[in-house]
Amino acid sequence: MKTHWKQVKIGEHLYRLEMENGFFTAVERDDSSLGIGERGWNAKGLLYLPTLSDRHCHLDKHFIGETWRSRTAIDTLPNHLRREKELLASLQGDVLERARTLLNIMLRHGTTKIRTHVDIDPTLGLAHLEAILQVREEFKDSIEFEIVAFPQQGLIRSKSIDIMKEAMQMGADLVGAVDPGGLDHQIESCLAHVFELATQFNKGVDVHLHDPGHLGLYTIDRMMDKTEQARLQGRVAVSHAYCLGQVTESESRELAERLKEQRVAIISNVPIDRPMPNVPQLAALGVDVQIGTDNVLDSWSPFGDGDMLRRMNRLAERFQWIEDDQLLGTYRFATKQSLVPRVGAPADFMLVSAMNLEHAVASVPPREFVVVAGKLVYEKEQKVRAAYERNHQL
């Protein structure tokens, strides 16, 4: 069945979008000829945006819907990990409920692809992963998932190697780890286990790396050695990589050349409280740089709302990208889709009230409509959908 959207703003003009079986079948200048009786929606000049991808989130650990949890600054990572365990154990809702809550929020923000890290260790077992696998199935028609099995307490430190094998067998997509040097205190052993798991189960790799300066650089360098040896080019990522913002540009450039060669991605949450990778430099040198929301009202931070458009806005402001081409370039870090609809492409988009794409990054307007595979999955004004269903007896 074909559906239509009329008066969709793309660039300086209005267009009619036709879609069928989840793909665009026509993109035409709008002459307002769409009849009242046809299956159609009127965008009334709202701006077209592609849906977005959140490459680093934690569906299982937010506190949305819970009573307020007070936070205090904690001196070391191990102490914070203990505090996180205590807070998570005190939550009333279960992991499945939390994941559904955050996914619905993200969908309303126009996020349709995610990579979520899911806590795993011998104490927790696989309960979090089981819940996230279930919710992935529930949302399979609207959100595309990648799941990282994540030993938050340290792969070696928490003796999680055996349970990570079980996680791979259950359906996790990537092998995770955190600070092979700073937390596990065994860079070589940790990375050896990570890449052995990835090779054994044909999985990707995504390692949280907070370790600073040259300790972090050395870890990334060894990850690229392992990537090359395991022939995992294009399937490995370093999350955070704060160290890349704590060294000279020449040191960052030298490492960037290897990152590009081995196709190792850098994924940033765009922090404002510490150095971050030199995104303009890395991107200009051809490194795959992506961004994610990371913390959303959890034990680490009371901030965050799961909105990737807002995260793009933060990235642009952080690097003082104020020119039009710079603002447009921000989209590359949060979506692989074209900025304009094309016949044959997936019909995944959102509509907002903004003058143009640049203005949307700068102003972060609310999403008025979100469409996935040609189907409306969210609208700000529910009465619009109700009227449509009445007219077409859906």
TrEMBL record:
The keyword Plastid does not apply. Residues 42-378 form the Amidohydrolase domain. The keyword Hydrolase applies. One of its GO terms (molecular function) is metal ion binding. Pfam families: Amidohydro_3. SUPFAM superfamilies: Metallo-dependent hydrolases (SSF51556). Keywords: Hydrolase, Metal-binding. This is Amidohydrolase. It comes from Alkalihalobacillus alcalophilus ATCC 27647 = CGMCC 1.3604.
